[in-house]
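Q: Could you fold this chain for me?
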Amino acid sequence: MKQGMEDILVSVIMPAYNCEDYIEQAICSALVQSVSLELIIIEDDSSDGTRECIQPFLEDERVIYVCNPYNMGVAASRNKGIQMAKGKYIAFLDADDRWTADKLERQLKLMRAKDAVLCCTARALMNQEGKLTGKVIPVKGKITYKNLLYSNCISMSSAVIKREAALEFPMEQDHLHEDYILWLTVLKKYGVAYGINEPMLEYRVSQGSKSGNKLKSAKMTFGVYRHIGLNIFQSIYYFIFYTIHGILKYI
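A: Sure. Below is the predicted structure, expressed as structure tokens.
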């Protein structure tokens, strides 16, 4: 039976750029979820074999494939996917990460119970080859705006957000942590996000990523504080805690 647009509960947004080594695993982990969904893949003008890796999955009617005419960046690609989305909820999955099979079902159950606008999970770290390291980054059961200022504990690929909130606050500032800006903006208005402290996201740590380059990531985090309106002293205050938390997180 074909899935009608009115039946789509979750729109999964997957930006894809030069990820031929990983994207098949990411796609499969989305398509095995037990909830009704559409998977919107925004291919960002890759120069490797990413497009060829995506092609076999286009036989699945749930997969929607869009190729950007030029490299637009991850924030613009996600925004494009959100604009296309038909689901009540938006889930984000980067092309180098993976989900456990029950992730979306568990998150939606919690979001309905709490009438939550945003939900995330803990994450298990894996190396660049996809082997789990045994390290798990936990999350709190409740996350407030102030909690989030101390550390961005909401991993992009773990997040599920109500579609209207995602549309209300498009991602911006691709040269910073655009996801961190989004979570702070959402929580400043809506108050609380809910976390499931189980590693339903398998997160790939790569030196080429924004978070993989620690010095670059630190500069971007400080830039986030300034962008959202914190003064220099507030920014330094929270940045100290960010640094300490970052050291402890990856030990």
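A (continued): The two ends are 49 Å apart (CA to CA).
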